[in-house]
Amino acid sequence: MNQIARVVNVFSTPYEAWSYRQSTDEEALSLCQKGYSLAESFTTKDKLLEEVSNHVQAAARMLREGADNALERHIDKALSASSEYRDLRNLMPSNVPQALSAYQAEFSEADLSAADSAIKAIGVTMPNGQFLFHGGLWPLGVQTFTTTRPFSTSFCPQVARRNAEWKSKAYDAGRMDLMVVHVIQPQTKAYAYSRDGDLGNEKEVVFATGAQLTLTRETHIADVTASKVGPHYETLKRTVPAYLLEIDIS
């Protein structure tokens, strides 16, 4: 029986990005009395810089800022508190199939077929309306295509951006693509990895082959620095355009 999960929304409580200033003695004392550590009491919130209440805003911020560990901590906290995420994980088998463990750790061509079979055997249908992130390269000139290998996504745009940079991908391509993936009329099963273990920080959900991806919008957000290790181990850098792509997956 095909099991369907519920939508996990990591921005049901919006993320707030603040600037900070040095605390006054009174503010530091008040923070300590509220349970903050001594180190945390040294600074206090000053100005609200941005509020992120949806996945498109989060992806745009990640492309502009490059990194935001506080945003990732917000997502980790949201997943920990989410009954929908807990239910999704409970739909997964208690032990990770070896094929999926190898796929996540090695990500080699040899693991793809076995991982795909495992997803189709034990995966679930992600809920209509679920949003996730993917960092990679969209094929130029293509509006819709069907995947022929497992398609990895994350609940976190910071993880997706790191994947967009992985192995000099953005440098070599001359562009960076960060995708907001929207599940629409799902037909393809997916596996949600645990957040425990060495790779738990990836917050990964991987879809089986046969998923149809459709580009609905492409927006240039910023120009960013992409890097690569050169032939003499020097760091090569170039400026490339960074795009936010809105993608439907079924």
List the topology elements:
Elements: E1 15-22, H1 25-33, E2 43-52, H2 55-65, H3 69-81, H4 83-90, H5 98-106, H6 112-122, E3 124-125, E4 131-136, E5 144-146, E6 151-154, H7 157-165, H8 169-173, E7 176-183, E8 189-192, E9 204-207, E10 212-229, E11 235-249
Parallel strand pairs: 7-11
Antiparallel strand pairs: 1-2, 3-8, 4-7, 5-10, 6-9, 8-9, 10-11
Query: How many domains comprise the coordinates?
Result: 1
One letter per element, helices H and strands E, the order comes to EHEHHHHHEEEEHHEEEEE
Question: Please, what is the oligomeric state?
Answer: single chain
Q: Which fold name corresponds to the CATH topology?
A: Toxin ADP-ribosyltransferase, Chain A, domain 1
Q: Give a short account of the largest sheet.
A: 5 strands, mixed
Poorly predicted spans: none
- Choose one word for the global shape: globular
Counted beta strands: 11
Terminal Cα span: 19 Å
**Percentage of helical residues?**
25-40%
Give the integer mean of the pLDDT values: 94
Which radius of gyration do the C-alpha atoms yield? Answer: 20 Å
Lateral arrangement of strands in the main beta sheet: 4-7-11-10-5
Q: Which architecture name does CATH use? A: Alpha-Beta Complex
CATH secondary-structure class: Alpha Beta
What structural category characterises the helix and strand content? alpha+beta
Could you describe the 3D structure shown?
There is one protein chain. This protein has 250 residues and is α+β, with helices and mostly antiparallel strands. It has helices spanning 25-33, 55-65, 69-81, 83-90, 98-106, 112-122, 157-165, 169-173; strands at residues 15-22, 43-52, 124-125, 131-136, 144-146, 151-154, 176-183, 189-192, 204-207, 212-229, 235-249. It has one domain (53-249): Toxin ADP-ribosyltransferase, Chain A, domain 1. The model has no long low-confidence stretch (mean pLDDT 94).
